[in-house]
Amino acid sequence: MWKFWLCFGAVFLSCSGYTWPLPDQLSAAQQRELKELQQDVETEIEELCCQNELKRCCVEKKKSLAQRNMEEWEGLIDSLKELKSTPDEEEAIKWLEEYNEELRQRNVRNAEANWAQATNITDENAAKVVEVTLEVTKWSLKKMEEAKKFDTSGFSDDVKRQFKMITTSGSLSDEDKQRQLAEIGTELEKIYSTGTVCQADGTCLKLDPDLEGIIAKSRDYDRLTWAWLSWRDAVGPPMKDKYAQWVALLNEGAQENGFADKGVLWRGAYEMPDGKLEEMVDAVWEQVKPLYTQLHAYVRRKLSEKYGADKVSTTGHIPAHLFGNMWAQQWNNIYDIVVPFPDQPEIDVSDTMVEQGYDALRMFKTAEEFFKSIGLRPMPQVFWDKSMLVRPADREVVCHASAEDFYHDSDVRIKMCTKVNQEDLYVIHHEMGHIEYFLTYEDQKTLYRGGANPGFHEAVGDTIALSVNTPGHLKKIGLLQNVGHNQDFEINELLKMALAKVAFLPFGLMIDKWRWRVFSGDITPDNYNTGWWNLRMKYQGIKPPVERTNKDFDPGAKYHIPSGTPYIRYFFSFIAQFQFHQALCKEAGHDGPLHKCDIYESKAAGTKLKNMLSMGESRPWPEAMKAITGQEKLDPSAILKYFEPLEKWLREQNKDEKLGWD
Ligand code: KAF
Ligand code: ZN
Question: Which residues are chloride-binding (predicted)?
Fold first, then answer.
């Protein structure tokens, strides 16, 4: 009834053709389960024998493995036969199969419409996005009603999970309101993406690369104030009323479906009882706050020395426009101002990249090479054919980077306005992490083609970039010539990392604290801006460089607000990526300090990562966390360990400083 070919000697070695019995009296789900087991066994056999050992002894090994697995296999079939699902569940499974296929086809169209608009902003393309969104809503509502007719109480966990996903919705029932919501969404994003600032001499500047470039490079206090303020004045006020309408409609949809507000639904992605997510991130923040406070005090002192004590007090909030980043979310662009040991070898590679003639394509190839080196997939041809890697000259586009899954034939793409510098090399790794996740879970059911939670999706590329950005690795790929081997160099290295990672944490936390309160009605449209700045001041210890009022709408100047993208995922990611990094480094056999680890070429680390990625969204995130780190919790001990030497150094530097900003 079954047969398998074994490896016969080195020359005629063949690993395929391992055929297993699949009894047809089993349900579709059971057959699928068996097929999955079969695949696992085959992979194991291939890895054990045929890839590694082209030797005769492989035959014996394979025989015994096959024998053992056949016993397990037959046992499994017997137990499944006894456990036959009920006719109801059979029907539900069949319904789900059709659902997943139709969902996939709709996702294809949805992705195409979004892509067309994001890479060519026109009224026509916007109208198409609205139409497709309305179709999707209509279809999901219909399917939700059908799904509710099943009594899922006796179904298996996997079937229940899918039904829960299908029936959790925040859609409005009224079609006019659905349309209004979709239209406001595209308008807000358009205001942001097409926003420009014109100067007295008639030249007009875009956010990317012009205004962001000024904030990153200029060291002129007034010029910085001008760029900071102009961007906010250009896009904030035109958005404010629309944003309030948008919030009201989202809340109405949530409430129609039995939720208190849209924030509850957003937090639902983490599958924790409401309130627990905020509790978890607050607890994590409390643990990393002492490190942030040290970094803040050190940077504040340096900025005060640079711009004068009249501009930057050494005891209070820091003006928000001096961090080299439009939103003060990452501070690495002012590394030159705060560098602890300027005489140590340079660690920023932006200039070298330009000198070596890097362009966007070469940067993407560099990133791809790393992913391949640990055994992840190369970018498919369609990726190179269809991605948008630089800003096109002839049309308006959404320049904020993104990765898109088109749900067929490994069609995956990145859209980005790449500039040749180290920051964008990092963003490329970030985006390619999304792509690797897409490719690794592409065989999952459509409903499960997502991250274990949204934070996992954000953490993949960043985890890889933690290796790439080590001076050791940058030297390996020829971007650094000299690497110091002393404590001063290490402090420089860790400080640069902290400017990107630690500085981000309170920003990553406050954005959705603001939105959760906006959704709950705690912060009303009259207080949008005050509420925003209260959180910026409290968590980040920064303040607006000029007085702001509630006519301003500074939240709108950050992409994720007009685009309606939840943000707590990034806070989660910035903690989790250090946990992942630590686990993968262990797998790669790294020993020594965590910040020196580079998992380049470690197939063991790659396999560990791949196993987690392949789960997609099929299980609650703590299980995925366990698969990669061995424990289930979001845990800041890895990031704290990583920065331990820096924290010690900062404490010493700050011993005479007043810490904090109240
Ligand atoms: C992350 C890393 C470094 C710095 C800063 C961050 C946070 C954040 C920021 O403020 O810039 N980073 C991004 O926004 C990167 C873009 C993205 O990859 O996260 C992108 C955002 C996006 C764009 C359009 C629609 C929705 C979200 N996310 C994705 O492309 C994405 C998200 C989930 C699954 C697949 C792709
Ligand atoms: Zn991302």
Answer: 270, 569
CA angle, 416 then 444 then 566, to 5°: 45
Tokens of 41: 């066994």
Q: How far is the CA of 402 from the centre of ligand 1 (A)?
A: 6
239 C-beta neighbours (distance < 10 Å), count: 23
Q: pLDDT digit string (tens) for 68-100?
A: 777 777 777 777 666 667 778 999 999 999 999
Report the largest interatomic distance among the alpha carbons of the chain, rounded to a whole angstrom: 86
- pTM for the full model? 0.90
Residue 170 φ then ψ, to 5°: -125, 20
pLDDT of residue 10: 29
Please state, in angstroms and rounded to a whole number, the distance separating the CA atoms of residues 204 and 211: 10
What was the pLDDT predicted at 75? Answer: 76
Q: Measuring from each residue's beta carbon to the nearest atom of ligand 1, which residues come in under 6 Å?
A: 329-330, 400-403, 430-431, 434, 457-458, 462, 563, 565, 570
Give the pLDDT score at 655.
97
Q: Cα-atom radius of gyration of the chain, to the nearest Å?
A: 27
Annotated binding-site ranges: 270, 430, 434, 458, 569
Strands 196-198 and 204-206: antiparallel
Output the CA 402–ligand 2 centroid distance in Å. Answer: 7
The residue whose CA has the least distance to atom 30 of ligand 1 is: 402
Cα separation of 247 and 288, whole Å? 32
Residue stretches of the annotated binding site for Zn(2+): 430, 434, 458
Distance 293 CA to ligand 2 centre (A): 26
Per-residue pLDDT tens digits for 174-188 = 999 999 999 999 999
Mean pLDDT on 550-575: 98
16-25, 412-421, 449-458: range with lowest mean pLDDT: 16-25
Share of the chain above pLDDT 90, in %: 87
Report whether 568 contacts 336 (CB < 8 A).
no
Residue pointed to by tokens 């990133």: 367
Q: How many CA atoms lie within 13 A of 184 on its CB side?
A: 22
| Ligand 1 atom having least distance to the Cα of 454 | 33
Work out the pLDDT band at 662, boundaries 50, 70, 90.
confident
Nearest in space to 465 (alpha carbons), one of 356, 615, 584 = 584
- Closest-lying ligand to the alpha carbon of 404? 1
- Region for residue 353 given its phi and psi (left: phi exceeds 0; alpha: psi -120 to 50; beta: otherwise): alpha
